[in-house]
Amino acid sequence: MTSGKNQILSISFRRLYLMYKPVIQPDICCVSNVAPHYREAVFKLMDRELGCDFYIGDRIATPVATMNYEELKGFRRILNFVPLGSKFYWQKGASKLSFKSYEVYIIDGEPYCLSNWSLLVINRLLRKRSFLWSHGWYGDEGRVKKRIKKWFFNLADTVLLYGDYARNLMMGEGFDPGKLVSIYNSMDFPRQLDIFRTLKPSGIYRDHFNNAGPVLLYIGRIQQSKRLDLLVESIRRLNYQGDHCNLVIIGDEVETTNIRDLVSTSGLSDNVWFTGPLFEEERLGELIYNADVCVSPGNVGLTAIHCLTYGTPVITNDNFTNQGPEFEVIRENVTGAFFKENSVEDLCRKIKAWTSLSSENRESTRKQCQTIIAEHYTPQYQVNVLKNLIYKYSPPLRAYAKQLGRG
User: Fold this and answer.
1) Binning pLDDT at 50, 70 and 90, where does residue 85 land?
2) For the stretch 127-145, what's the b/e string if a residue is b when 16 or more beta carbons lie within 10 angstroms of its beta carbon?
3) What is the domain-level CATH number for residue 79?
């Protein structure tokens, strides 16, 4: 009986909407809590090839560098962040978007954003398509969080996931595999590939460290959760054993870690180079390309994609519930390795293995790293996934895309 009432309500709501629906070309609405700088390439490609209208939040709780929204032809307006307690928030103006004449909605899959719930519910009543773009499942959800996330994701027609790990977890929770699609993540692969083609081995590290030892690299924020203390201790032990190596740390210290003091007291000041934050891609490309291996002891995210793009393998820990979805680009003994979490001994073993490669094996590794990125972790791959889904569900959008040459 309740199901019948809901169906009647949905039909009535849909009819009311259609009476006042403005007549415009069919289009796609993209609602994002923020547009980080690293997603600029995929947003611009969505702008060109999908003709999205973008409604983007002005900020989130954690500060993040954003792209210039005005560079998107389809940018429509800013959605103001309204905090609701310690974790929850609302994006002012978002829920009204359901009443515009969009056929498909691509929405950030953030359950803490309550306006997303509103969008999903109204879209369902209006029989519109909602795609949630999300991390999905992490694997450490408790009973209450599981229930809430199941309600949330089941409101969507399709859940776009950053990786297969989350997809497998969600299938284990009973989600329909047909509505779970891995879209992965990306940086600006075309530009990075152009830079890569100009690179060749250089003496940048030999000149800085005044030795020819292998070089480890860390890129990211300098904070406690990254466990750089494990990396410094590993280098101290390796150097003591005669397996001399150097370390380059690229990033800003966003919280007190005392890592510089640890480097000094460990007698490693001549072997560790703190570059500070770097943003010039050509410079980053040169540093990544010439390193032997990237090590992120706490967890790894986009750094894994960044390093593999320039052909440098990555080592991180084996606790996948605390990893970013990008850890999946690491294939054991192919594009990097996983060490036992918090184990300096195991980390030393993995570092020694990856800094002992012959020049032939190093080049083979470089090619395998790039192959994995080119297959799934590019803006074009992500937009192709969206095209396949959107045009499958919406014949008018498919026809519109062909008209614009975007099909």
Assistant:
1) confident
2) ebbbbbbbebbbeebeeee
3) 3.40.50.2000
Residue 3 lies in a domain: no
- Cα–Cα distance for residue pair 254/389, rounded to 1 Å: 39
Question: DSSP per residue over 119-161, as a string?
Answer: HHHHHHHTT-EEEEEE----S---HHHHHHHHHHHHTSSEEEE
Which residues fall within 8 angstroms of residue 291, CB to CB, at 6 or more apart? 205, 215, 216, 217, 248, 307, 312
How many Å apart are CA 162 and CA 145, to the nearest integer?
19
The answer to whether 248 and 275 are in contact (CB under 8 A) is yes
Contact between 280 and 302 under an 8 Å Cβ cutoff? The reply is no
Mean pLDDT of 313-334: 96
Do 107 and 220 sit in the same domain of this protein? Answer: no
State the burial class of residue 333 (Cβ atoms within 10 Å of its Cβ: 0-12, 13-18, 19+): exposed
CA dist 249 and 343 (Å) reads 20
- The tokens describing 137, both together, are 């499942």
pLDDT digits 0-9 by tens, 217-255: 999 999 999 999 999 999 999 999 999 999 999 999 888
* Residues across the chain: 407
Estimate the crossing angle of helix 40-49 against helix 189-196, to 10 degrees: 120
State how beta strands 293-296 and 314-317 pair: parallel
Q: Quick one: tokens of 398?
A: 């498919």
